[in-house]
Amino acid sequence: MKFYPEESCCELDKAFDTLEEIEEAMIENQVIESKVLLCDREHNLHVDLGVIRGIIPREQGAIGIEDGTVRDIALISKVNKRVCFSIIGLEKDIYSNTCAILSRKAVQERCINDYISNLQVGDIIDARVTHLERFGAFIDIGAGINALIPIDMLSVSRISHPAQRLKTGDDIKVVLRKREPEKLTFSLKELLGTWQENADAFQIGETVTGVVRSIESYGVFVELAPNLAGLAELQDGLFVGQEVAVYVKSIIPSKMKVKLIIVEAFDKEECPHELNYYIDSGHIDDWHYSPSDCEKEIYTVFSPNSHLLSNS
Q: 3-state SS of the chain?
């Protein structure tokens, strides 16, 4: 089966009407998703299954909780959020009410064995942004299992923080860039188009909106798209992250250059825009960002040693 990021697997959502349905789901080892109602003082998670309540014991809350490699905050933070789990037993509580014993850890183990372990470098998958740090974006790649997109792999255009490109909760496409025994690293920029694909969206003589990405002594770099930036002359009063209107003066593929003139600067900072994917499924072996007639080559080769075979 395919494993989805938590909080986005609607087809797994289920409320049970009878105890017999719950017993059937337990026998069939179904993967179910529901919202966490509370985390008790022993850090057990409680969910509503419809006819009865379910409990995810602390040690079944996530891979790594039992051995201490994952902290209990990973459980506390799930309150009012949806999680995936399977039913591993039924028992009576102190009031003689039947409750279901659930395991999120078991679903994560299945996800690793049946899905994540089969991913190859260059495979494109669905993911959900879980939180942002200055060094990169953490993503849920299935059943609440997290991986990282380093900040330099979010786009060709350089940004100072992932929040300039993504928001927590965004559903995105990513490509597996590197496998290590205990870590998977993903990338986004190879899915956002080559220099030429992005440049083809603009015409000389147009005035369009961009974002100031850096201010240098020789000019201002303005992002037109996540994988395309142009250079404009210096102007006073600009700041990084500022939205500007720019006139497209020239587009030079052989040098990967776009020359711009800043027409107007707006007194507001950007907010992340919806991403435009040029590749959104399947597998890629290599990706060439630079045009074929450009002297400078920027590319990525997706292989087990891709980190040694890339200058992108």
A: CCCCCCCCCHHHECCECCHHHHHHHHHCCCCEEEEEEEECCCCCEEEECECCEEEECHHHCCCCCCCCCCCCHHHHCCECCEEEEEEEEEEECCCCCEEEEEEHHHHHHHHHHHCHHHCCCCEEEEEEEEEEECCEEEEECCCCCEEEEEHHHCCCCCCCCHHHCCCCCCEEEEEEEEEECCEEEEECHHHCCCHHHHHCCCCCCCEEEEEEEEEECCEEEEEEECCEEEEECCCCCCCCCEEEEEEEEEEEHHHCEEEEEEEEEEEEECCCCCCCCCCCCCECCEEECCCCCCCCCCEEECCCCHHHCECC
pTM equals: 0.91
Q: List average pLDDT for each run of 10 residues in the chain, which is 312 residues long.
A: 67 81 95 95 96 96 95 96 95 90 97 95 97 97 96 97 96 96 94 98 98 96 98 95 96 97 89 92 97 94 65 63
**Using one digit for the tens of pLDDT, what is the confidence trace for 160-200?**
999 999 999 999 999 999 999 889 999 999 999 999 999 99
**List of residues 6+ apart from 217 with CB closer than 8 A:** 234
Exposure b/e, 122-155, CB count within 10 A at least 16 = b: bbbbbbbbbebeeebbbbbbbbbbbbbbbbebbb
**Hey, what amino acid is at 168?**
T
